[in-house]
Amino acid sequence: MSSIIIDEISAHGDRLECSIRSSAALERFFTDEPFRTSYDVSIEDVPEGVLAIPVLAQVCPVAWANGADVYVDEVDATFARALEDVQASLCEMYDFLEGGTLYARSTIEPEHEPGDESGLLFTGGVDSTCSYVRHREESPTLISIRGWTITPDAADDEKWDALRERVSGFAADHDCATAFVESNMLSFLDHPMLLAHYKRYVDGGWYSSVGHGLGLLGLCAPMAYARGMTDLYVAATHWDGIDLEWGSRPDIDEHVRWTGTGCHHDVYELTRQERLDVIADYVRNEDPDLQLQTCNNRMDGNCGECEKCYRTAIGLRLSGLEPSAHGYPFSDADYHDLRRSLERGDWVLGQDERHMWADIRERARETEPASSAERTFFEWLETVDLDELVSSSEPPLTHRLFWIGARNTPNSVYSTVYPAWRTAKAGLQFVRSDR
Predict the structure, then answer these.
(1) Quick check: 174 pLDDT over 50?
(2) Angle, helix 307-318 to helix 351-364, in steps of 10 degrees
(3) d(CA 172, CA 29)
(4) Are 176 and 140 in contact (CB under 8 A)?
(5) What is the pTM of this model?
(6) Average pLDDT of the chain?
(7) C-alpha R_g of the chain
(8) Maximum CA pair distance of the chain?
(9) Any idea which of 47-61, 110-124, 362-376 has the lowest mean pLDDT?
């Protein structure tokens, strides 16, 4: 039976580190880095069973994909039960997941004084901003995570600095605290090898399609315990009625919990356009200068030229707001450029983008166009086959051949050529991660 062993968990100040050992068959899914996470609060007094949660949240889906068991000295009893529920949901969603068992020498139910704080995973995009608006009376701590869309690599320092500055500014303007979490969860995992084995089963990357609901929430556990957070919110990407295979859904996130904290998949009952409506009402009544950040290309503002910028700008217009007042350079001339790019397949789009454009089309049917350019675009959108917009999203042949070779390479050979994998890694990260 394949296995993953969690050992040597340590907490020094605000830093968590641990190492793992795995069966030979699973070694290729992990790099030689120990798992590391840093917070901006001391975690030295957090019980070891809670400190184990961040690494378990990353490795358990890998174990379940291989029918492997996971061993740990100590784990929070509430989280152990949560893992069983999350595993059931993921295995029901994906046929290739086999499941496995968590074995712990001890499970703990620590005495913990309930706090009155809540937290919200926050980027400043449409989904998390809508979630903030809905819970603003709680003054939730705004939590930003480095390690997924912003990597721990020095090349991403400017992106992280830009995100920190923007979230800190939003928090100061709205009387909220912040929490910044940094982790190497996707360089601790061998993400290219996970793609090589499992990309054929999923629409996006490993983390977006399988791991990020449990993974991101689990990263927050020591910080949430130390701060006394009773509720932790993560905004939905999709909405009720869209049954897509995705790593963050109500049947995953709502199960995640540990002593003192329950997690919530928020704003799922609202479509993306309805979330923009909530934001628009808030702008008109309380925050006329609110800025959104959703760009796929930069973190220090919106480029106004990527698919997500165009889509958000049009959604703002349909909710009665002027995009340029909220971070999006957009004019009637952009409708022509957007249509041309969609028709040419300039962007890699998936089924979730298809649903978002369908949502826009539905709202456009109820809205009087503000200009002839807008009318022309909406008339085209009414007639276009949205499935055609995502038909070209299959990975390039070179990547597919690379993945086939990787998953059929003996681990001893793979370990020898691993530096070449690291060099080529950037070229394999074309799959969508955050929407």
Answers:
(1) yes
(2) 30
(3) 41
(4) yes
(5) 0.90
(6) 91
(7) 22
(8) 69
(9) 110-124
